[in-house]
Amino acid sequence: MNRNGFQVDLEREYADVSGLGVLYFDLNNLKETNDKYGHAAGDALLRRIADVLRLICAQLKHAKCYRVGGDEFVLLLTQSTREALKYCAEMFGDCMDNHNQNETLPCSVAVGQAYSEGPCNPEMLVSQADHAMYRCKQMMKDL
Q1: Of 10, 122, 104, 109, whose CA–CA distance to 53 is shortest?
Q2: What is the pTM of this model?
């Protein structure tokens, strides 16, 4: 689903939901990939990430995935726990590692997460996950 669907769902489905987890994903260096290998290569990386997120959502009962920007995706997990959110992030990392072992053009993704046990403002939680993703991205650059 796209950003518009995401905004509608945030307002309708996730307002005051308990046990809401957010994973915010951002593909690293997409512009460089597009410049060096062409937009078809960048599109293939975006499809790879979307495929992995669809696979994760298919395995989880209360998960929904959205593409919210050019190279940004959000996974919302309801009726969740911190452990379940961590498991989703690890599952994503494992899937991407497996993909990267078999690909000539590997990709890396920065991931941020946020969780609320009780009722919360979902937009604020998404913002927290977004900020966590940018901290992750900065740490990856510093390595």
Answers
A1: 109
A2: 0.92
